[in-house]
Structures are given as C-alpha cells and as structure tokens.
C-alpha cells in the first residue's frame, strides 16, 4: 500500500484526481478499482525517433546517450541528442502549447508576472544560439573507484541550435530588485514517487549568468518545436554550465535573494569537494565541503572516424571532432598517436557564437602498419588543457574531461 490508498486499501479521491492530472485524462470507472490496486502507470516513457545506435542507460527515468561517432554534425540533430531525466516527463497529451504559461516570481522581482507562450513571442525579440549542453556527470564511467549515478560514457553532450527569447529581456520587463543574486527554475516533470507535490529538480544560476545574452527561454530546437523529452513546450537553456541548470518543461523562474535552494542544489548534487580528496574517500556533505559546479571544463571528442576503423588502402587518415570549454573558448586542439609523447596541432574553427562547440580536424600519417590509438586534447583560452587520464576524483563523478581516444588498425 502507498499514499494513494486509504486505510481500507481503496484509492483516495485525491489520489484519483492526482493520477488523472498525471495521465492527462479522466480515470474511468475509478469507483470500481479494487482495493490495493493502483492504475497502471500510463506515463509513457517511450521515445520516438531516436537513432537506433543511441545507448539507453535506464528507461525510467529515461537516460540515453550518443556514441561519439553519432555526434559528428556541427549542430547535433534531435535524434542524436542525449536525454537525461531525473523524473518522468509530463504526459504528452497534457501539454497544451497555447495554454502553457511562464511565471516569473521570487523575493527579488518587483512584481510577479505570468506570460503565455504567444505573449512571450509577441513581446520579445527571438534569438537563436548554438549551445553546448553537457551533463555534469558526462564521462562518469571513467572514474575509479566508480562513482554512483548514470555511468555515462562520453556522449551526454549536445550542441543544438535553440530558439527563444533572452531571459534578461523578460526579467527587465518584470523588474528586478537590487538584491537579486540567483535564479531557480521549476518544471512540470513528475517525481518518480508519483507524488504530485514533490519537485523533481529545481536548479539555477547566479544572476550574472542568467543575464547573459545567450541565456534563453526556448520553444524551438533546430527549427522545430522542442520535443517532449527535451522539455516541451518551453525550456531554459544555459550553455557552458552543467546541463542540469537548463530546466525542461519550464513553468516558473524564481528570482532569488539567496543562492537558489531547490532540490539538487545542495549536498553533493552537482557539487564537488572544495579540497582535493583521495579517490573513494567519503566527504561529509556539509555546505563548506562542497562548491557548486559552474562553467564546465575544457573537453573534446573525436567524432570521425568511429573507433575501430581499419585503414587498408593508405596510411593517412582524416580525423575530426568538436572541442568546447564551458564559458571560455578553445584556442588549440592537438592529436597524438603515441600516447601523448608527441602532439600534432589540429585545424580549429571559431565557434558559431559564444558557448557553441568548435570543429577541429587533422590529417594523420601513420609510420607503419599496426594498432594505434588517436588521442585528442583541447586547450582553453586560459591555457588549461585536458588531463590525459582521470582528473580529480569526486564522490558523484562529475567533470571527467580526460582525453577522448579511438582505436585504429592500419593494414595497408
Ligand atoms: N525539469 C527538468 N529539467 C531538467 C532535468 C530534469 O530531470 N527535469 N534534467 C537536467 C539534466 S541533469 C540534464 S543533463 C539536462 C538534459 O537535457 P536533455 O535531456 O535535453 O539532453 O536537462 C536538465 N533539465
Ligand atoms: Mo545532468
């Protein structure tokens, strides 16, 4: 028995109402439901249209990532975008784009305001930016001892083109008080416990990041309506920071006079120890022991060829991929075929806009037949490069920006 049942084991009226709102329609013959029987979850978690090569880590909540070679496009197509859900998305049929609203509230707004999506579109100028959204736990599977959480390989990252309006334009319309320090988002996803009162995740960023030009309230991705799993119909998108700050199914932004304190802002969630710790060491989850992850570290991917490529006609190979560096730009990318003893500088393009990933390419000549690994390493505008192997271990396994590598066999 759970919260849905009364003492005699029958469904409570309030539970029926809650379940009806979750499935987006009336629960028929609810009065006939036998004791201790809960309606089967009609909370559809199937994802339409994703590339069959995507790797599903879990399906409830849905978490899936792209193998590196699927991420070859400069602008990630929707069917190759990773999905990271902490709860269950709202039921598709319950989402009405024309009735959906965004409320701006909190201690630090002059007056609370609510806008419909069409009001947002009419009142504010739309902008499109390509933004890197990378899960803070991307690369977690590379930590040893293993850190708890989804064992992401390298594919919990995408750089899509998001269209929406600037959060700063809406906040200017609402009016901020001088004491505004942070924003926090609220989305309409459903807690795994199915308790409608529980908030799945509510994170945010300091007001300075919130007011950047590229921080958008978006309704479209790659020119289409945002699909259900990526936050339909409205989503906050903030490039360069852990993607957990980009709230999906967005209905409210609160402007706070304190560091936002929603679920997954404290403890070891999206936070790392302030002082380096031994791999595997327990760290007491106090406020002082951890800091909130902000800009993501410099990183790169080899997206072509696919690992395992065999060269049979000649010993030269064109390789390419992307590099990104949180709030910073990537200034140099290097590749190595000898485990980092020597490096070859790659060609590197400028980002399409701030916070977009950059494309790199290189032509590699192999000295003789054999098995090789190609490693890639990016350097950011502050001169910081990726570590070749595991960076600073942390309890939740965030921020693994170790070099990406692929295998190549030359059999000319
Ligand atoms: N409402 C809501 N927003 C959310 C999440 C969530 O579970 N609920 N997950 C966050 C996390 S941890 C990540 S990494 C990104 C993933 O975005 P994507 O699924 O569109 O790739 O969404 C973020 N926004
Ligand atoms: Mo994430």
UniProtKB/TrEMBL annotation:
Annotated protein name in UniProt: Sulfite dehydrogenase (Cytochrome) subunit SorA apoprotein
MF annotations from Gene Ontology: heme binding; molybdenum ion binding; molybdopterin cofactor binding; sulfite oxidase activity
Keyword entries, A-Z: Metal-binding, Molybdenum, Oxidoreductase
UniProt entry tagged with the keyword Transcription regulation: no
Keyword Transmembrane helix annotated: no
UniProt xrefs under InterPro entries: Ig_E-set (IPR014756), MoCF_OxRdtse_dimer (IPR005066), Mopterin_OxRdtase_euk (IPR008335), OxRdtase_Mopterin-bd_dom (IPR000572), OxRdtase_Mopterin-bd_sf (IPR036374), TAT_signal (IPR006311)
Domain Oxidoreductase molybdopterin-binding, residue spans: 91-260
One record GO biological process: sulfur compound metabolic process
CDD domains on file: SO_family_Moco_dimer
Cofactor: Mo-molybdopterin
Pfam families per the UniProt record, alphabetical: Mo-co_dimer, Oxidored_molyb
Residue ranges of domain Moybdenum cofactor oxidoreductase dimerisation in the record: 292-410
